[in-house]
Amino acid sequence: MAEAHQAVAFQFTVTPDGIDLQLSREVLKHIYLSGVTSWKKRAIRFKNGVLTGVYPASPSSWLIVVIAIMSTMYARIDPSRGTTMIVMYKHRYINLSQCHPWLKHAILSGKKIYLESVRPLLDDEQYKQMETVANDFKKDPAPKFQKHLKLKSWWATNYVSDWWEEYIYLRGRDPIMVNSNFYTMDLLYVIPTHRQAARAGNVVHAMLQYRRKLERGELTPLRALGIVPMCSFQYERMFNTTRIPGIETDFVQHLKDRKHLVVYHRGRFFKVWLYYGGRHLWPSELELQFQRILDDKSEPQPGELKLPSLTAGNRVPWARARLKYFTEGINQASLEAIETAAFFLTLDDEAHGYDPENIRSLDLYAKSLLHGKCYDRWFDKSFTLIVYKNGKIGVNTEHSWADSPIIGHMWEYVLATDCFQLGYTAEGHCKGDINKSLATPTRLQWDIPKACQEIIESSYMIAKGIANDVDFHGCLFNEFGKGLIKKCRTSPDAFIQLALQLAHYRDKGEFCLTYESSMTRMFREGRTETVRSCTCESTAFVRAMEDESTTNEQRLALFKKAADKHQNMYRLAMTGAGIDRHLFCLYIVSKVMGIDSPFLKQVLSEPWRLSTSQTPQQQLNLIDIQKFPKYVGAGGGFGPVADDGYGVSYIIVGENLITFHISSKFSSPETDSFRFGQNIRQAMLDIRALFNLKEKM
User: Fold this and answer.
1) Residues in the active site (predicted)?
2) pLDDT band per the 50, 70, 90 thresholds, residue 17
């Protein structure tokens, strides 16, 4: 997803303190710090497990477990079967393994997979050169680097994730707006109320309910294949979290239960308390508070209107301005209110959403969620909730703390709770009594000098340039969906990925390195791995589709071969046998040790001109979309990854709809998001035609 942009753009600033012949002291320092962080997390989790119980049992149930095991021993029954299930259920964070199990043989298998992935992109001479460089790397210095990674895998919880967060996200000095943050849309067809304050009231209340369940450990862990619990670590920082800018690197500030949020409306900031008498505010009470803000006619203070653009521009100017102008007085107090809030809410003065009469309505909606006006979202917050004046909603999410399925899980709960549990009155207001004795929201006060206002304006202009360059197209593909693809006995993901390969070849006349994001949450603190979707098998299929001399039977055979290859690669990535995160960590070790590696430098600098990601739907199954077909989500997307490439997020919605969120840059003469969307649509239809000729659908 958006991490593909960071993966080829990050700048490494660590230098070695000295190199030992056996182990680098600087690398050992990094490994030690990773381990300390891991053990701190384990201590916190152990405490939380004792206090709140572990899914699905409480601490008292362990007495039953002990008795059961003792009974099996007395009865001479093998207790391993029961013990296996107990270990699986023991803790929501304990999964298949702490880190990738293939680390021992990773260099040999990784080299083979990498060379396979670049073979369709290189001519014979280029491939031979790459093969030589890869073989040289395998001999030396790869074993030195691997030795350090093995040590880290023994000591740290996950040998990848902490470095991934630090070097891919937090050390990036470019703007995070568009380049890193991503967005999630509302229900596609339904707006449950057109009253802005009421929609905000229900949605915020539903988020508070979700946060309470999260803090109490009441959310059932998701399971891979319905069996293996997936790691829930990323959920911990969903609320009460802010990315804090620094000169060399940012850091993620996560706090315990926060009792307020900050609202932005027409250039003013308001602090709203979320509790009254020890309980959450009811939706009707929140509606009242938000309506008070909407009715407030006061003007922004000097410098206040575009203040959030500091979070949209380059990180270093923001970090310096924060140190100079926001560390004392009312500026410090107001900034602290924002950074310690549960989350950030924008009551937007625009109207957006899907309009079937306007082919570009999704495009404008997506761009608004992705970057807005460049000064009306706080891009550093874990997420910004946006509520438009027509009642439509969406979320802009900061990427360092989690990946899209995490925010998607919360979003599904919120939409279902909003529409099917809380509901609205006939007039569109939140249900419940109105407590008019609530204290009114508090305006945050600022004293922003001219010099700081100039920095704000500079950040705004940089962000505005980035936003104006985003060429976005939302494509609703409803000719067929998952239902028909399954009849073809093909993985829906493989079907779509091959369609993307065909569409890209038709669009540009060439193949490119393709990034598909796969989750690795079957491992503790796992995040993502890369599936390299452009393969020898997929390129053979695409060429056959464009070769008029090839029969449809031959094309179909090549399609099935390419689809099988893709499924196997996705399976490898998901189970820890991908190569890109391992290569990334080897590169980190090489830079810390001060050893130059032409192979790793080449691998980490290759542009992903087609970056793709599937956004999961129905993680919770709270809405029966067969019964309520209009209550489907529109999914979400991210900004363009390469200057001359495409970013594509796709969402398989039910049985008969697939949505594509396509981004590129206007400044590139090689790309056009609308054109690429049309190519995707035609590619999907052309592949379906192969099966129509083979069997009746």
Assistant:
1) 399 (proton acceptor)
2) very low
> What is the arithmetic mean of pLDDT over 431-437?
89
429 is catalytic: no
Strands (E), 491-583: 514-519, 528-532
Query: Would you state the pLDDT for residue 28?
Result: 65
User: Given a cut of 70, is residue 590 above it in pLDDT?
Assistant: yes
Q: List the one residue out of 675, 248, 181, 186 whose CA is nearest residue 466.
A: 181
pLDDT of residue 45: 54
- Please name which of 3, 177, 183, 207 lies closest in space to residue 635, comparing C-alpha atoms: 183
> In this structure, are residues 649 and 612 in contact, taking their beta carbons and an 8 Å threshold?
yes
Q: What is the DSSP letter of 655?
A: T
- Check: CB of residue 351 under 8 Å from CB of residue 393: no
Closest by Cα among 614, 619, 622 to 566: 614
Catalytic residue among 5, 399, 504, 566: 399
Would you say the pTM of this structure is higher than 0.70? yes
Can you tell me the distance from the alpha carbon of 101 to that of 154, in angstroms, rounded to the nearest whole number? Answer: 11
- Tokens linked to 553: 């039977």
List beta partners, residue 514: 610
Laid out side by side, the sheet with 514-519 consists of: 470-477, 657-665, 646-653, 610-614, 514-519, 528-532
- Beta-bridge mates of residue 652: 658
Phi and psi at residue 410, in whole multiples of 5°?
-60, -40
What are 218's two structure tokens? 């009441």
**The 3-state secondary structure of 243-299, one letter per residue:** EECCCCCCEEEECCCCCEEEEEECCEEEEEECEECCEECCHHHHHHHHHHHHHCCCC
Helix axes 106-118, 142-155, angle to 10 degrees: 120
Q: What is the DSSP string of 332-360?
A: HHHHHHHHTSS-EEEE-SS-----TT-TT
> For residue 444, which of 253, 273, 263 has the smallest C-alpha distance?
263
